[in-house]
Amino acid sequence: MPELPVEPLNWALALLPLVVLLILLAGLHWKAPEAGPIGLFIAAGVAIIAFETPLEVLAVASGKGVWDAIFILYVIWPALLLYRVVDRAGAFEALHAGIERFSRNELFLVLAFGWVFVSFLQGITGFGVPIAVVAPLLIGLGVRPLYAVVIPLIGHAWANLFGTLAVAWLATERVVSLEDQTATLIQSGLLLWIPNLLAGLAICWLFGRMKGVAAGLPLVLIVSALHGGVQLGMVLISPVLAGFTAGAVALIALYPLSRWQRYSEPNEEISQRPVMDEKRFAEEEAPEPVMGLGMALMPYLVLTALTVGALIYPPVEEALAQFQIGPSFPAVEAGFGQEVEAEEPYSPFAPLTHPGTFLLVAAGVAWLIYRLRGAYRRWAEVAEPTPVLRGVVGDGLPASVAVAAFLVMSVIMDDSGQTDVLALGIAEVAPPIVFAFLAGAIGMVGSFMTSSNTASNILFAPLQDQAAGALELNQSTVISAQNAGGALGNSVSPANVVLGTGTAGIVGQEGRILRMVLPWAGIALVFLGAATVALQLFWPE
User: How far is the CA of 414 from the CAs of 7, 41, 42, 51, in angstroms?
Assistant: First the structure.
């Protein structure tokens, strides 16, 4: 089979769709539904002209991308429905009023939801659900919508590898023959500790700059020790439960931490709080809540109980997962002779264990209980809530266009060979230590394109393995960097950003959010690269 043309021109052309997408979103402030199709058309054009891709390959790749989009949209639309069902009943105002009695320290609450709770949700659900759930909750606490998306994007990234019951790690095991599984698990856990700690510090910085960091530092250190330490210990016992256990332990620890006077009362020293919308809950404007805190949290407790009950106990999960659906696609041959294997079926999923189903059930239960208790009628008497279906459709349609465009673009780049050329080009020109430093960046590019740590590992872990062997690098270290970089990339994935803006009601602000998250992701990537080099140099063979 002919080799892919890993040449400077082809490499630059393969990079072009990603560069254009970033420029349009972050530089020119285009909306994601506008920028996504442009990136898609450029990827298709590069595939046809430079990679000699037959139209049959493009058609198959487009079908796969649409199916991948359906998988994700089955999270977005139910998440929007849950948000609107809760908002229509006035639960967010009740949430804000109730949690103020739990703790009146806004920094503590922002960290609790935007870092701890979002990480817990990532441990059991994933697929963008944490962003879709937590962004509206933060808005309910009085956080500005823009920050309500940025904060969980940063806060959840570290938990992607061993979250969702470690599906990304299981994918790595499936595509790479690991020489030392234990070393890979430990190094992955160590590298993931970096974005975890940086996430807590970044949220404090966003909240109140250096005063916010000073105020939140003890809490950040304690929570990060629980997150990173418990996960590191659990990967040696049960990788599948490592992310969930770490998130659960930190979530439980919030209660005693909220009793600490430092975090139970407002911090008067932080006068400037750009994260908070000071006018949203001004006393003279806020209607009296029509429910208590427990009833406001009820939909999310139902969501958590459904997810844990269905996925944690293996016999239940296996029974529910027996029914799967997925289309079949034929084998095709791309432009340079590389074969795209047949998929029968392609990327099947089990509807009964899909997060979208849990969201739908939670929304249905919430709607029924709120209706029976008269919450909708009473809230309509004191406020002017947006009708549920109008809000869902208004936010869901633009988000759907963007997600579909991004995922079709991703599969076209993969099946035409553009993705392989990007990774192989870096491996060919980079000295061993430089490649070790950049290994995490390759994983980040994969999840940026696909919105999935799992997909990034499937795409790039074999290439990272080959490059590690050719450059005589430690396989465990390079694969661990791929794992951690793939997790980090979820913070800047356009599809995740769109999911957040959709549920926060700010579709069109994707570029602003990327400009806020990218510097943090860049800093985390530098630390990740440096730690990878250190592991390569000092980890015993």
Answer: 17, 15, 14, 11
